[in-house]
């Protein structure tokens, strides 16, 4: 079976979208949360249990403290406070711990990271509480986020005049969970425990209170956790914590009845101590069950999605030699009996694995919940991909490739630009494994784009001042004619892998361009570099430098907003109208499809101008300026091939994604774009407008790539090569990232840093699939017309 490279790439990306969707559904677990609504206010607290006697305590206990002050220190390890280091570096804290005016704990940080609850201040004649804690620790080298003891163990010290111990009563810090802080502070301030909290009360805080109050505090906490367990675990009745809770509640009721009858007796004291221990055991077990539920992943669905995505990536990488040849076609032979046998054998194996996993799974699984038709379709798809991979690999290993007549031809060597593209792609992929690089990914793309400009500058100077002594190659070259510069396709030896763009017999750039055009070519990389530097300061994004002032803030002042909108929209309309008239009247040999592509591109530009906030309109203007400079003074004179031009478009598209002010944080999505021109919220238009407004940079550069290759090249395979390269360069980071987040699923910052990036990658892949379909449609139109 023979497929065009563009069609093949579009199908691969569409399948990859399916794999990512299955992976995302398994990666994000069902949240452990209470289904009780808040429309009618907070629920009344659970009454005190009783056995035969009626209790009059049906309200929340009074607060223990009037005010809570939280001192949160970043990356504070437990040994920085306790032990010899604490005596040296935090002497006053050590004094308070030894004096007995505090309770000390070692709080373990587990994913997801803990967000401190909002505390309401109360002005009462009660003591205050000072909470000294750390959000996470750090290793000896200063890193954090992993699961080593130094990184997850943090100090938690509660300091108050209400805590008094006898002199010499030194207690070693006990190990607790950071999730216990929310429940403890709620009880300390006389507030209801958050319904979604999975933590338990730190008992030393209330151990100085009367027995009845202690049991009341513990009962409220266990009731809250048991309700949360009932709403999130179907077999909650068999949970050991729930059984302990029921036992504790019965004993508590007996204690209340005995307490109301006689308030002072040894039997009452012994029974109260027993109920206390029973409640503490129940709290520990319930909290552990719920915490395990929070961090439970659907590994089977994740593995299925990962296998599909990795199969697609492997297939794309193995298909590079065939896809980037002159014909841009791939030969996939699946008709042999061996491949048919392999296909059915893999289906049987996958079906058996599916039955085993789904019948033995203790928790719910999304992929197991699908109908057999849907699950079978995915297994058939995975089997077919594996057979195609084996087929392509067999052709590469067995069939081999014919020897070149000129093996030392310069076209077989890697240029500096090729090495930059390879190293930049690999470096970006490797950077996705670190949380700090994910948070500051825009810096990676800024660095790559700036380095690309320097590499283009070096290539330009070498071409103009040192000459071009390379051997004849294939690619784009510039010819001077009656209508100015026009691109022509020149074939040459060694053109079956990459369309090297040097041109056989074509004049060098220094001979084609003279005067002001020559100096514009030499200055263009530096002008693009200056534009990128200005755009970096327009929107400060990320985490580390987000506090710095934006140049965009200066533009959002009253009437200046409207003036910028009018000026840029009118300018874009004038430019588009002028070029459309020129393409129809002056250059009458341009095809209708080229004009239509320009209209589509102009329409996308106008839509972006409408959706962008006023201070982001310079981003659009600089994007158009850089595209014009690259087209006229970089890609044409230097005769880059379609693969290199595609990668450059992809890099600039990613850089402009961050120039808009986006980041890998969901909070930076500008949802106001989804309401432009709408009176009320309408789901489909709002989703489309928000997605386009967010990914306007990559989409505009992708549409410009289609227009450029369609109008500036005479190659019948340029669009196919571009589609294949675009699909592959997007698939590499996505495939690598899902493997990384699977291995880092217990990372401390998995939800705050890595998960939002995963959603962005999934959405980017979906947009890439749409771009590849557009590429393929344009390529089919070109082939039909040819």
UniProtKB/TrEMBL annotation:
GO cellular component terms, semicolon-separated: endoplasmic reticulum membrane
MF (Gene Ontology): CP2 mannose-ethanolamine phosphotransferase activity
Entry annotated with the keyword Transmembrane helix: yes
The protein, known as: Phosphatidylinositol glycan anchor biosynthesis class G (EMM blood group)
Organism of derivation: Saimiri boliviensis boliviensis
Region of interest (Disordered), residue spans: 35-55
Encoding gene per record: PIGG
TM segment ranges: 299-318, 339-357, 369-398, 419-438, 555-575, 595-612, 684-702, 723-746, 758-778
Keywords: Membrane, Transmembrane, Transmembrane helix
Coiled coil: none
GO BP term, example: GPI anchor biosynthetic process
Pfam families, per database record: PIGO_PIGG (PF19316)
